[in-house]
Write a structure and sequence with these properties.
- It is found in: Cell membrane.
- Keywords: Cell inner membrane, Cell membrane, Ion channel, Ion transport, Membrane, Metal-binding, Sodium, Transmembrane, Transmembrane helix, Transport.
- InterPro entries: FluC.
- It catalyses: fluoride(in) = fluoride(out).
- It is a single chain.
- With 122 residues, the chain is mainly α.
- It is 86% helix and 0% strand.
- It has five helices and no strands.
Amino acid sequence: MIYTLLAVGFGGFLGAIARILTTSICNKLLPHNFAYGTLMVNIIGSFLMGMFFSYINSKELNILLKSFLSTGFLGAFTTFSAFSYENLLFLQSENYFHFIVNIISHLSLCLLAVWLGYLIFK
C-alpha cells in the first residue's frame, strides 16, 4: 500500500507541475476573458486518459504504474475544481454567455478527446 501511495503522490506532483505550466502557456497565448488554460488541461487530460485506459485494456500494466498515471498524474493535471470555480466567477459577474460556453466546451471537447484517445489503442 505504501508504494501505491508514493506512486500516486509522485504522479500528482508531476501532474500539478504540468498543469500549472500548461495553464500558464495558454494564458500567455490566449485572451484572459475566458478560462482557456483550464479547458486545455482538461481536454489534454481527457485525451490522455482515453489513450491510457484503451492501452491498459489490451495490455497488463503494473498497478503502481496505473496508479501513478491515472490517479496521480492525470488526477492532478486535470482540474474539476478550477472548472467549477471559474463557472462560479462567470455567474457572479453575470457573464452568462461565458458560463454556458465554458460548460458546453468542457463537456463536448473533453468527451470528444477521451473518445479520440481511446480509439488510438482500440
